[in-house]
Amino acid sequence: DVKFIQDYGCPSRCYQLGLLACTAPYVVFVADDGVFLDTGAVDKAFETLASMPPSNKNIVSFRYYEGKRIKKNPVEGEDWWKMGHHEYYRKLLIPPHFLLMMTALVHREYTIEMGGWDCRFNHLGIGAHDLAIRMQRDGANVVIGHMFMAMTHLDGPIGDHKPVHDGHCEEDMPFLQSLY
């Protein structure tokens, strides 16, 4: 089923409203600044879940390409997906083996049980990290899936990415730091 929900709130609130409106047992959340790649990643993610011991806490986090790095992409290496690989997260009290979840296949009820996206974040970018931290602290089993999307934004505080970049750096990252 496809539902259209119109809202003029921040992206994190829109993701939360979408989560609450879904009726399927699983939800795939995606970035709002990218294009889907025809890789079969969602089908492969369900195959991955089927191969794991049954649990609502099993999550498949998809890989993606980002910005100008589409041709030479450092996000492909396994370590890039660990929070401990990123200097910002090493400064916080977050276990370094925790994995990023920027786009993922999650169990809907478990995501709701964990509170979903914290709508105090402006954008999903940093808010998704918060959700990933909360879920993994609760014992979620996150595995890295296949390539799913190519993000199309410009790198840094320019062009279409400037409002997102500014929201991340000026508000969402300091807020995340206050939580952890």
How is this fold's topology laid out?
Blueprint (H helix, E strand, L loop, with lengths): L10 H11 L4 E4 L4 E3 L4 H10 L7 E8 L21 H4 L13 E4 H6 L10 H14 L3 E11 L10 H18 L1
Parallel strand pairs: 3-5
Antiparallel strand pairs: 1-4, 2-5, 3-4
Helix pairs in contact: 5-6
The number of distinct helices, counting runs of at least 4 residues, comes to 6
The helix fraction, in percent, is 25-40%
In which order are the strands of the major sheet placed?
Answer: 1-4-3-5-2
Approximately how much beta-strand content do the residues carry?
15-25%
What radius of gyration results from the CA coordinates?
16 Å
Main beta sheet: 5 strands, mixed
**Topology as a string of helices (H) and strands (E):** HEEHEHEHHEH
Sequence stretches where pLDDT stays below 50 over 5 or more residues:
none
Calculate the terminal CA-CA distance, rounded to whole Å. 37 Å
What shape does the CA trace take? globular
Category by helix and strand content: alpha+beta
**Average pLDDT taken over every residue:** 88
* Count of strand segments: 5
